[in-house]
Amino acid sequence: MFKYREIRMLALTAIIFIAVNVVVVVALANRNTLQVALGLLLSFSSLLLLLTRYKMTIFNDSVMIYEFKGIGILPVLLDFEDIKEVKVAGKHKLVIDHGRLSTVHVVNAVAFGEELKLKMQSFANQNK
């Protein structure tokens, strides 16, 4: 399930989920029903974010990764023809050279890198 998840946003969303649940428990102890209701709504929405978003995706002609831009971590779509090199820099770190270097933090960088290289080779073979 967590095969190609962006690890930084996964950790951030997990921290938010835990913090909201702590607030809900404190609100329950204080018997504040409005805070409990709002906290449960926030907890549910952060759980949905935790389970569904921030996935790296490999398409037939491109890959969608997350990069740190000036305002935060945003999705970026890279075409296979622009990618020059893919290097596994660690267990959770992948470096993609596409005219400039992008560092990708993914839960399973080795499997993501292998699948990305395989898709890039099949794309190159189709376009010959």
Give a quick summary of the entry.
48% of the residues lie in helices and 25% in strands.
What is the element layout, followed by pairings?
Blueprint: H1 7-30, H2 33-52, E1 57-58, E2 62-69, E3 72-79, E4 85-88, E5 93-97, E6 101-105, H3 109-126
Antiparallel strand pairs: 1-2, 2-3, 4-5, 5-6
Helix pairs in contact: 1-2
Order of strands, widest sheet:
1-2-3
The SSE string, one letter per element, is HHEEEEEEH
Shape: elongated
Quaternary organisation of the protein chains = single chain
What is the tally of helical segments?
3
Helix content: 40-55%
Describe this structure in words.
The protein has three helices and six strands. By secondary structure, it is of the alpha+beta class. Strands 1-2-3 form a three-stranded antiparallel β-sheet. Strands 4-5-6 form a three-stranded antiparallel β-sheet, covered by helices on one side. Strand 1 (57-58) and strand 2 form a beta hairpin. Helix 1 (7-30) runs antiparallel to helix 2. The relative contact order is 0.16.
Features:
128 residues; three-stranded antiparallel beta sheet; 3 helices; alpha+beta
